[in-house]
Amino acid sequence: MGSRSCSWKRPPRPRRREMSMMERVLETPQQLAWGAGIPEPDLPSDRPILLLGMGGSAMGAAVGALAVSPAKRVSIHRGYGLPGWAVSERALVVGVSYSGNTEETLSGVEEAIAEGLPVAAIASGGALARLVAGAGSPVIEVPAGIQPRAAVGYQASAVTRLLGGAGAVEDGAAALTEAAEVADTVLGGGEGPGFALGADIADALRGRVTIIYGAVGPGALAAYRWKTQINENGKMPAWWHEFPELNHNEMQGWEALQEVSSRSIGVVFLRDRHDLPRIGRRMDLTWESMSGKVALAGEVLSLGDGALARFFSMAAVGDVASVRLAEDAGVDPTPVDTIERFKVRLAED
């Protein structure tokens, strides 16, 4: 009987379907749980820390910094180069860039290396990861292939763990585990109370410009997250402000154009359970003053004990609302074509 030869090749893996933006929102608890397992890098703990980042990566940096111990000094720089104090005080400089190619962040890390400052990085790859690794410094790589704003859980948790390695965060794993559990309770895989609230608020905001108010701390940062998510996901204008500062300026601005603002502006209040009682009173009186001049689209109350958990309990509702606003407007929440075209034009210079 003649012989037969046989060749076997592993069949190509089916191409994984790209997750929708809403699916990415619902993935937030898993992103935070991933971060809880990251080992903390060995970094100097005897100097101030400067986080560099832009856009969604700066948001991840700011969220991670919420977990910092009160005695530690951590600052965020959104721009080119380094602030002067970072060099004079010999700061630890951490570049956070999801793509690894953000020019502002790269310029700051390059300056830090030239000045002999200790550096570290968080990225999915790119020039930043190569630069910092080439300097023999720690790099935490986050999963690639996601819009930076949709990877906020990955980036915030990586920042938290890195800051822990620099002695600025105590028990970051526990803080991230709580945040993951609270985010899961809020979102519930699309069945949670926060998911329903986000959809209801989006309905109330339909056809209106959104303004989000929160208090200094997790509430204000969550308000900023709402604003940027509505900008990028919803392709709509939105603004934010924080208590108590807005009581010294913005609240006066609802007087002259009430006929316009009452039909075109929707306001969302974010109330953190750790807000001072005086902040709660300011929020109550502010709404009384604004009533009839704008529409109150909704309120969100934080859950959890730690700052990370409280932030994500409020921000996740806004993530849902931003995607629902995009869907209602008939736009795809994922691409950011205007920003990408701008970057192309800028690179031509």
What is the element layout, followed by pairings?
Blueprint: H1 21-26, H2 28-36, E1 49-52, H3 55-65, E2 74-77, H4 84-88, E3 92-96, H5 103-114, E4 119-123, H6 126-134, E5 139-141, H7 152-165, H8 172-187, H9 193-205, E6 209-215, H10 218-232, E7 238-243, H11 258-264, E8 265-271, H12 277-290, E9 295-301, H13 307-329, H14 337-348
Parallel strand pairs: 1-2, 1-3, 3-4, 4-5, 6-7, 6-8, 8-9
Helix pairs in contact: 2-7, 2-8, 3-7, 5-6, 8-13, 9-13, 10-13
End-to-end C-alpha gap: 72 Å
Q: What fold name goes in the CATH topology slot of the largest domain?
A: Rossmann fold
Oligomer: single chain
Shape-level CATH architecture of the largest domain: 3-Layer(aba) Sandwich
* Residues in β-strands, percent: 5-15%
Specify Rg, calculated over alpha carbons: 22 Å
Helix and strand content put the structural class at alpha/beta
Description:
There is one protein chain. This protein has 349 residues and is an alpha/beta fold. It folds into 2 domains: 21-178, 3-Layer(aba) Sandwich (Rossmann fold); 192-329, Glucose-6-phosphate isomerase like protein, domain 1 (Rossmann fold, 3-Layer(aba) Sandwich), CATH 3.40.50. The chain has helices spanning 21-26, 28-36, 55-65, 84-88, 103-114, 126-134, 152-165, 172-187, 193-205, 218-232, 258-264, 277-290, 307-329, 337-348; strands at 49-52, 74-77, 92-96, 119-123, 139-141, 209-215, 238-243, 265-271, 295-301. The strands form 2 sheets. It has a 5-stranded parallel β-sheet with strand order 2-1-3-4-5, with helices on both faces. α10 links the parallel β6 (209-215) and β7 (238-243). α2 runs parallel beside α7 (152-165), α5 runs parallel beside α6 (126-134) and α9 (193-205) crosses α13. The radius of gyration is 22 Å and the shape is globular. Mean pLDDT is 94; it is low at 1-15.
